[in-house]
Amino acid sequence: MNPVDPIILTAYLICLAYFIYKIIDSFNDEYTARVDEEPLKQHLSDNNLQDVIGISFGFAKRYEFNKLDRLPISISNKSNNYSIYVDWDYSTFTDFEKRARRVTRLAPGTTLDLSQTQVFSAVAPNTTLKETITAEDLLQRKGERKDDKLDTASPLNLEVEITKPLVDLTKPPDSIKKQFQKFKKRKADLDFSLELVFRVVGPDRALSGDRIRIPCKFILKKLPWTAGLPWNPK
């Protein structure tokens, strides 16, 4: 055997191991998201609303690290004699650094003025409200994009669009880097939260409605890298 052969073989194996690592790492960027049901049920029960309000979220089966940018939400009025009003302007998202962020209710083709107060949403008895929400700081008008090619007079320039993820795990803040490393190794979960504010009007409530805060905690769980393989359904 040529004395150089072991060196060449070692170098080849190191390169092969590196490329395999890079391939695996390229698929290693997906997680699941869910609401923590037990605390949510407890908060509703503490306010005697377990038979009045139902809250659920339409999470996808899985997300890439920078793809969760909005939350579909369903709020049901399970009662026969209570009216529910959702105060979006009093509701807040809280990110990994516990920073409060104003909740914005989205509508197709919206041209809303983000500086103005949002109209509350009413949920009549035995009906369900379905909306999509995000954080205000993720929104931008199309006409403000640097690469926008729309005619400057086009009304489409006034439409608001989401330009950043609600949860961005490609750029985790320094304050959670240690926890994020555990998250990537599937040894810990991450979480963020939404605090919804309701006014409930009914026989045993104030005429103007009692303002009630209901926290919703979301758990992010890292998936194994095999979940990102092309033959696994999204």
Key phrases:
alpha+beta; 13 strands; 3 helices; 11-stranded antiparallel sheet; 18% helix; 234 residues; two-stranded antiparallel ribbon; elongated; Immunoglobulin-like
Folded structure, characterized:
The structure is a single chain. The protein has 234 residues and is of the alpha+beta class. It has a single domain (32-136, 165-223), classed as Sandwich (Immunoglobulin-like). The chain contains 3 helices and 13 strands; from the N terminus they run H-E-H-E-E-E-E-E-E-E-E-E-E-H-E-E. Strands 1, 2, 3, 4, 5, 6, 7, 8, 9, 12 and 13 form an 11-stranded antiparallel beta sheet that branches. A hairpin with an 8-residue loop joins strand 12 (190-201) and strand 13 (210-222). The termini are far apart.
Helix proportion: 10-25%
Rg measurement, Å: 23 Å
- Number of beta strands: 13
Number of domains: 1
Q: Report the sheet-strand fraction.
A: 25-35%
CATH topology: Immunoglobulin-like
SSE string: HEHEEEEEEEEEEHEE
CATH class: Mainly Beta
